[in-house]
Amino acid sequence: MTNMIICHSIFGNTVEIPREKLEFRPSVYGIVVHEGKILLVKSRSVGLLALPGGGVEMGESLAEAVTREVREETGIEVEMNDHLIHFSEHFFYYDPLDEAFHAFRFIYACKPVTFELVNDEGVDDGEVIEPRWYDIDGLKVEDFQSFGEIIINYLKQLP
Questions:
Q1: Cα gap 48→108, rounded to integer Å
Q2: How far apart are the C-alpha atoms of 126 and 73, rounded to whole Å?
Q3: H or E segment at 153?
Q4: Closest alpha carbon to 52 in 67, 35, 64
Q5: Paired residues of 40 in beta bridges
Q6: β-bridge mates for residue 50, sequence order
Q7: pTM of the model
Q8: Number of domains in the chain
């Protein structure tokens, strides 16, 4: 077993990280769609679109985590469906803070309960900015920091 792990950085680079530097991080993201629009945020570091979501805290269920993360990043309340859209394992390096993660990433469909987004100053997250409802039509895979193909394929299947 090698001591170095290849991680993908937020800037799209590959970085070798010592195994002992990795932190285990389950994370959950929500695809929230309403009236032909999808709820997205932007990555502060790279300026690309992203799903609202993030790390699951110890003792927190995936449903609790996605509800909390979407609220913190966008200001709206959601309910998580039991429909798991995607799961992946990912070795990730977050360059701005020199942190590395062994991540298990879950994406669930979520239903919005409220709709009014927090203003940009009210976003409670250091990495995401500008929560917005985006028209589904016109979004492209390359618009996204991650999960672009998964998101676009999911949206194409919607009625």
A1: 20
A2: 9
A3: helix 148-156
A4: 67
A5: 132
A6: 41
A7: 0.93
A8: 1
